[in-house]
Structure formats: structure tokens, C-alpha cells
Amino acid sequence: PKLSLRFVLPDGSARHMQRDQAEPLGRALARIATNAAKGHGKAGKKSKKARAEGGAEGEAAVPAVRLFSRDGAAVAEEVPNAAAWQDGAVLHIGDARYRVERNPPALTELRLPRSLLAGFPVCPKVSAEFSAPQHCLFRWFREQRPAGGGDAAGEAWVEAAAAERVFTPSNALVGLRLKLRCTPGDGEQRYGPAREVESSGPVEAGPGACTFDARHLYTKKVCGHGSVRAVSYNILADTYAQTEFSRTVLYPYCAPYALEIDYRQNLLKKELAGYSADLICLQEVDKSVFVDSLAPALDAFGLEGLFRIKEKQHEGLATFYRRDKFSLLSQHDIAFSEALLSEPLHKELCEQLAKYPLVQEKVLQRSSVLQVSVLQSTTDPPRKLCVANTHLYWHPKGGNIRLIQIAVAMSHIKHVACDLYPNIPVIFCGDFNSTPSSGTYSFISSGSIAEDHEDWVSNGEEERCSMSLNHPFKLQSACGEPAYTNYVGGFHGCLDYIFIDKNALEVEQVIPLPSHEEITTHQALPSVSHPSDHIALICDLKWK
């Protein structure tokens, strides 16, 4: 509803006004005139006094303000602002002339990450109006090293790199700060005013070799259009990594600086960018990490992100898809407890669960969510994909709770991939907190679970809840059953999977996991060379 108007007066003072779009132009021009008169500082004060005395000089201090259209005709004062201010129109304020630019590209936010490591990509956060990051111009500068201790005044910054949106500082820049100059553009050869941002600290030395370096040798290129590279990864939420309990009990072997979010984000962004993936499903994503770090970084590498927070928590799930391969058709996210109570789809399960009040209460207390996105191929539009992502309840004795959660998940996915979009293939990624010997794994891969399965009594007889469950899909774990996908001091096991629809998809290659030697170099995970306590699963799938 508001029109934002900015101009600089001949004396150098900037003016920023908000006017109603529907207001007649005459009122806006009168306001500009009084605003400009104020701009003359002491002269302004004098003119007020003169005006009070009815003197004629006072009137002269308020400049004549007119707006002329591109063809030179004066714009009538009753025309509303929205129609009056057109590109190329000319505003007269006294003797000054201004060319009107309507909706010029403008930066609203430009930020650099707090921590910069040599050899790791620096991805700025860029927000703009009437512009998109891919149309902006970027210029990177580094601090000049003081020659012989003296400061080269006026020449403190040297251009550092090719003009790219993402900049990876070399080891030669360790100890120097960076500066980015960004000029917003709209893709139509129109550019707005540039802004600059300097890094808060210098580039620091990176950790050297990381656990994912060898894996990147397999994923240098994006795979072809008939294939899909999928990644599933629990990235360890900052909420859990930075507690006293984590530092002293869970990960006492990990250097404290390597648990800090800024450090881990550097590793994570390099790791994820290097996989050249088409689909990335992440768990334990802090909301601020998604908004300020991952979404801007992966956007620069061609991926669009979707986020679903867990109720009552600061972390959730994120799904990224490659923009030039897929477009988003629809989203069908749910919270298990809410869906169980409110969706007719789960009525029968809900009634069965009601017979076991202790278990029911636990299930309903959990904040676990399921993210479901339906994607469509950009090159072959009839080809659609149902991508699901989840993080199930964590407790070692919570097998019965996980069975209920996965039952809700499978019913919901069936609703999307059988009812809403008949026969579309499913890819189901996540941290299922379930080993291959569990009821949950067995249920997903076999399609059913018996009511006498031992996981129904995973927390003792008093919490038994027995039911038989079914789902119609033929799913297989694309990466098989690795020895472990989670490796911490007190536990290692396989908890993460990428389940694929056997009828429609086949595995082209599985990117090997890091060697046991690499994982245990620093005892366990996370470490200075690995940003999470889990390991990413990566596979290339192709349509049958």
C-alpha cells in the first residue's frame, strides 16, 4: 500500500519518504517541497521565521516541485501516486532535476559468515528487492598486508578473485579480512546502488583433509537427466552439539572449537556443495542455520530448499532439490501426533492405539515430523517423484513408538503417492533411529509387521502395544545396510537410510562411506574433519 521514495538534495542530504499509493500526486509534491525546504538547514529555520512575519523571502525557500512525464508533459496533480511515478519521468525540485527509477533493484541484506576458513567456500547471504542473487554482480577484496609494518593508506583493499557469488579463499589469505561489494541487478541490465560488507574476522587455516574429500572424487559432476543423486544426512543440530552434556559426556573427544556452529557450517557447506546432488534430505537442521547459512549457500549451487520445523523445537527437516532438474508441485508435511488425532486417514490406527494409553501418551508427546514434497521433472514433465524425509524418535527402548510413527508416515505417503498422484515413485530418506534388525526397518522393507514382533514390547510388558501393520510399497534401502551411519564414543550403528521404490527406481551407484580409519582418526564423530556425528548417505538412482 505504501510507495517508498528516496532522493538526495543538492546539499547532499538524503530524503526517504513513505506515501500512500492512492494519494493524489499534488499532495506528495507539496510534501516533497516542505521536506526540501527543511533541508536547507539554517536557511530553513530563517524561512520559518520569515513566514511567521509574513515576509516574502520565506516563500522562496520552499522550492517549486513538479513532475514531468517522459514526453515532457507535466503530470496532473490529481493523478494517484501509483500511476504518476513512471520510469523515466523527471522530478523538478527548484533547479535540481531527478530521473525517476521505478522499482530499481536494491539490496535489503548482505552478510558474510562469521567464520572464514581457507579452502572452504564463503557464501554470502543476499536478500534483495526487484533483484535476485543470480543477477547481482559480486566483487571480492582482501586486506592489503601492511608492507614493512606501514599502512598503505587509501589502498587497504586489493581485488581478490574472479567476480563470482561464492569465493573460496586460498591459504595465502590466512590472517587477512575479506570485503564483498555487491551490485543488485534484475537480469534486464538494470542495476541498483552497490553495498559493501567486510568480514568480522580474518580468514583462518582450514583443517586440512576432511572425511568427505575422497567421496567428492565420485561426485564432481551433476549426474545426467535420467538419473537422480540423493543425499540423506543428519547434520547434528547446534541445539544439541553445544550443551554441557554434549561437550563432556557425548563428545568429550571432540575439540570444543570443532563443535561450534560456525566451524561446522564451513565443513558442511563444502561437503554438501561437493556432492553435486539433485536431492538432499537433512535432519536436525536449526532454523537459523537453514535461513542464514544453508539455504543461501546451496541456492548459489543451484538448489532450492524447503524447511519444516518440529513443533516446540528449534530444529527440523530440510529438503533441497536441484532447480534445473525439478520443480515443486506440492508439499504435504505433517506432525505425527497431530495427524494421528485429526486426519481421518489414521482413524483406525488411532482407535487401536487408544487401547494402550501409556504408549498413546508417549506417541502424542513427541514432536517428530514428516516432510513430503512432490517434485516434477523439468525436462520430462510426466515424471514425478514423492520425496519424504523424517527423523524418528531417538530413545533406544522406543521401538514401539517408532513403529507407530512409521505407520503414520507410510499411510500418509500412500495417500500422497497413491491417491493424490497415482503411482508416482517414492524416495524416503531419514534418520529412522532404527538398526536393520529393528521392527521399523523390517516393516518398511517387507511391507508388514506382525503383532507379536518383539519391538512391540521394546520398553517392557507394561508398554506393550500389539497390532499388525501393512503398507503397499516395495521399498529397498538404496545404500544397503552399512556397518554404521552414526559413530559416537558410546555407540555406533546403522540408523539412516534412503529407501527407494523398487518398481520405478534402481541404484546406479552408491558413493562409498569414509573408511573406518578416517572415521576413527580423531576417535569418533564429530571431529575437526567431520561436522556431524552421522555420516551422509549418497546414491545415484535411475528411472527404470
From TrEMBL:
InterPro entries for the chain: CCR4/nocturin_mRNA_transcr (IPR050410), Endo/exonu/phosph_ase_sf (IPR036691), Endo/exonuclease/phosphatase (IPR005135), PDE12-like_N (IPR048821)
Annotated segments matching region Disordered: 36-56
Biased composition (Basic residues): 39-49
One Pfam assignment: PDE12-like_N
Compartments, as annotated in UniProt: Mitochondrion matrix
Domain Endonuclease/exonuclease/phosphatase: 232-534
Keywords: Exonuclease, Hydrolase, Magnesium, Metal-binding, Mitochondrion, mRNA processing, Nuclease, Phosphoprotein, Transit peptide
Primary location recorded for the protein, binned into one broad class: mitochondrion
Descriptive protein name: 2',5'-phosphodiesterase 12
